[in-house]
Amino acid sequence: MAELETELREGEVAIALPPQSDAGVYFIGTIRTPWPTRRDCPKRGSLDGPSCSIVVDERWREALTDLAAYKRIQVLYWMHHARRDLVLQTPFSSMLTTGTFALRSPVRPNPIASSIVQLISIDGTTLQVRGLDCVDGTPLLDIKPERGALAD
Amino acid sequence: MAELETELREGEVAIALPPQSDAGVYFIGTIRTPWPTRRDCPKRGSLDGPSCSIVVDERWREALTDLAAYKRIQVLYWMHHARRDLVLQTPFSSMLTTGTFALRSPVRPNPIASSIVQLISIDGTTLQVRGLDCVDGTPLLDIKPERGALAD
To answer: For residues A90 and A109, what is the distance between their CA atoms, to the nearest angstrom?
Structure first.
């Protein structure tokens, strides 16, 4: 939890979060990348970037059936290091204050990221992909084929 | 809950879900569409389709700051009618059994949908958009600008 930010930059506004959540998500696997901390991560994943692993929990093995037919997949994951209570943010890159929903920052009420990645291979419950930009150990939420992305 | 499916079609496999969830999501608003049930929904949203409303909860009002600069936004929502325990599914449209992660079906461990929609207008905390295909009353999870989708 050392990466949790608690200080506010100029212009940033935090609100009180709702007293309880409305639904629960299951972490269905783990994403392994070369980047141990958020500071190490590229700003945006590249299809030319390094191969990363997605390790799906054994419970969901059969759900991978036929996925190898796709060359591009959508990966949803949980940005577990991000705070959730900012409505206005001042990104360090621009130092311009703007609304959370006008940013793709990890800091948001529900820290769910969506990436389209290239599927290289599947071996058992481990996928090799290119195009991710998240920290090593990020919890996996979902895998879906990108629309119309059947392999040649 | 009348729409919850409990029967299995040929080839479908249900598993035991984990005993508890790993993180909680907040419903941050409600999506209003012309489709009262899943049966009424189009199979896929179209940018030529009807205008739908996204009503953001008052708590998150400031997070909409500057969003109007974007012409296309990504909307994440929770498909609250879908069961979560199928690893193999037999879609009615094809009657071919395949893995949950090789489908974009609402039925998945975490029923999170992602749609890219056209942003028509924002009035207070209500957005008008085109391109959704979900049932009326669907809970909203997130709004983000599509990458590179600044309005002209």
So the answer is: 16
Distance CA A139, CA A126 (A): 14
Determine the distance in angstroms separating the CA of B53 from the nearest CA of chain A, rounded to an integer: 16
Q: What is residue A144's three-state secondary structure?
A: strand
Distance separating alpha carbons of residues A127 and A54, to the nearest angstrom: 5
B98: which 2 tokens?
Answer: 């395949």
Structure tokens at B152: 């002209």
Distance CA B99, CA A5 (A): 39
The answer to whether the CB atoms of B101 and A67 lie below 8 A apart is: yes
Does the model's ipTM exceed the 0.90 cut? yes
pLDDT at position B43: 83
A70-107 residue pLDDT tens: 999 999 999 999 999 999 999 988 999 999 999 999 99
Summarize the confidence of residues B101-116 as an average pLDDT.
96
Q: Which of residues 120-139 of B touch A (CB under 8 A)?
A: 139
pTM over 0.90: yes
- Residue of chain B nearest A116, judged by CA positions: B114
Q: Which residues in chain B touch residue A112, judged by CB atoms under 8 angstroms apart?
A: 25, 76, 112, 141-142
What end-to-end distance do the CA atoms of chain A give, in Å? 43
Residues in chain A with CB shorter than 8 Å from the CB of B24 are: 20-25
- The first and second tokens of residue B57, run together, are 């909860």
Distance CA A24, CA B110 (A): 8
d(CA A145, CA A124): 18
User: HSE on the CB side for A3, CA within 13 Å?
Assistant: 12
Residues 6+ apart with CB under 8 A from A70: A119, A145, A146, A149, A150, A151, B102
Residues 45-74 of A with CB under 8 A from B: 56, 59-67, 69-70, 73-74
Average pLDDT over residues A100-127: 97
